[in-house]
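Quick one:
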Amino acid sequence: GWKLGVTALQQAPAVDVVAIGLMSGQVIIHNIKFNETLMKFRQDWGPITSISFRTDGHPVMAAGSPCGHIGLWDLEDKKLINQMRNAHSTAIAGLTFLHREPLLVTNGADNALRIWIFDGPTGEGRLLRFRMGHSAPLTSIRYYGQNGQQILSASQDGTLQSFSTVHEKFNKSLGHGLINKKRVKRKGLQNTMSVRLPPITKFAAEEARESDWDGIIACHQGKLSCSTWNYQKSTIGAYFLKPKEMKKDDITATAVDITSCGNFAVIGLSSGTVDVYNMQSGIHRGSFGKDQAHKGSVRGVAVDGLNQLTVTTGSEGLLKFWNFKNKILIHSVSLSSSPNVMLLHRDSGILGLALDDFSISVLDIETRKIVREFSGHQGQINDMAFSPDGRWLISAAMDCSIRTWDLPSGCLIDCFLLDSAPLNVSMSPTGDFLATSHVDHLGIFLWSNISLYSVVSLRPLPADYVPSVVMLPGTCQTQDVEVSEETVEPSDEMIEYDSPEQLNEQLVTLSLLPESRWKNLLNLDVIKKKNKPKEPPKVPKSAPFFIPTIPGLVPRYAAPEQNNDPQQSKVVNLGVLAQKSDFCLKLEEGLVNNKYDTALNLLKESGPSGIETELRSLSPDCGGSVEVMQSFLKMIGMMLDRKRDFELAQAYLALFLKLHLKMLPSEPVLLEEITNLSSQVEENWTHLQSLFNQSMCILNYLKSALL
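Output:
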């Protein structure tokens, strides 16, 4: 009907009335029942992208445009009442008034969702709250701080943002980099595109002095100067760090690092120069090397945790170690290929290097030697990350794979493929999440570390291992079925290891009994004196009901007594009192068959008082015999021969000697057994003592030697 393309349709609050947005920027309010046009409005910002009506009593219509502006029209007076300019930096994709509320929700291609409230006297919208991400793919991400709750991310849209892993309300944007922030403030420029800095390519952050001065240093695409940023103020800093004497225009900053103290920034340039700047004052503090540190472009710079050593690497394939204070070259290492990425784990002094031949070299900065070499990627390695303890190295490459290398064993322990190549990886300082960014994706993806909450096999992957493809989470509904099919896979869990009672017959093995069962056997008299009650126990008036139990270390319920004979005799049977214990009977059996395992188990199940009673009853005066005492000594000899339950054998023998020492010399059989035992104990202890002395000697040397 209007000979123009229709771009938006919206039902009005009135019955049978529809708002129609056209390509020309016209909005037509039309009654579709009678086919009558009620009113027309026109916006000069291009086609109408979306339309919405207020339903809280105000006859207002909002219309979106491709410029990011929103027009507010009064339907009674048929006029424009307000303009919301630059509501979004890109086209308005959708806008909706919430039902019966003065709230307008808008979104756009700038990856922002904003809620505007209309509570002013003139009817203009005020920004109430918003959620915003990057509007272009990411260039670099890094965890910020030590709590693992903030991720700093730089994007091709020129912004630097902080995302919280706890809740979205803690997200914040540090804004666009501006060439001259003071000029923008003074002149109040609305369109800052002409003074914005190019996208950040690499950045380094340190929170040590964030409350005193800027703690983030960033290098920009095609720019020589590096910008500083302040995390607490959420803004670009006061300084642009660049050498003064540079005359060439094609030199750019390619690598940055900030010291662990937050005082110095180290910047590497494409000309091979590496400079040091003070973060507080922005003053140049010197350069490494006479003219330049490297002949080629600087690919990576790193400073150790104590500001003693600076490591730089260049495209010519050299890795150089410098003294941080006097800028003198200490050592140089020639690499097999040109390096692409360099990463230092400051706590352990381990340096990771990703080379252009798709291999990874790991160096120890103390010995300055290559300690591990990994190969397996089929494409350029984009980024690497160390686990907080320095045991894992995680690498992401253009072959769409993320691999986890175990540094102590030098093996690949995890590998998975993605449907989009990963550009950046960053491991949380707490080790619970791995953050990744991907080609043509605006978001940061978090991967949970399964080894923190379940049993995972960390065995090396076989050479013919085929990694599975993991689909990145998205809003497309067709992916749901595929993901559910892939997640049902048998998990490779670690095989539970059953430890034998003794690893080797030659090894002295201790029992698993607690110390309270054997350590105080010689001091039972003192303990009983201390624990003697001052007054007899009193029976409580209303005692609770308890199921009767059998006394012992392992709780067991007592069986009910069968009292069949009501006239039971009260005469005590002396034969019952003189009955031998189970332990004595098992010792007598041991004399015959030379097996003492059952008797030993009975002692293990007894408490200290029970053990003393059993050993005291072995003497002939207390119902035992010389043969039973001889059998007990043979049992101790068997324990020493096997080298099992070593501490129990010593404790039981010590208590036996304390109780029966006066009687032993009068019995030749027992004297002979004791002599044999004495040589056994001395032989075992001499061997143990030599091992202890050797270990103590090595420990003392390691503690005192100057390595």
